[in-house]
Amino acid sequence: QSLKTIFERASVATEIGVRKRMLTMRCAESDKLITHFLAFDKLVRELKACGAETNDRMLVVSLMITLPKRYDMVVTALETIEPEKLTMELVRSRLLDHESKTSNHVDTSSDNVVMYGDGSAMKFKCYFCKKR
């Protein structure tokens, strides 16, 4: 009986520690999502190992809280989905789709610029009118 009491207390303390790490976990702007998902999954496994009750909705919400601002549009879109249809697989696939689209996006704002200068470097002579 005393062993059960000791291990239950340790289990509760472990659960509190893991939940605290999960709540303070943040994905940096420069981090890849797959790396973040692996770290998140490790915490989920630790929660389950200490006997904590988890459900898909709680895990989805916890994952979305950890994301950086660049995923705010995706999170907002996911918030409109019915809670019963919002699964971890759906959330991850949408987030990974967004990451691949934004990482493959090439800045085309300078495509139309041929050359730019302030005009002070060199003066050219016109071969037609002979002026500089």
UniProtKB/TrEMBL annotation:
It comes from the Eukaryota. Pfam families: Retrotran_gag_2. This is Copia protein. It comes from Photinus pyralis.
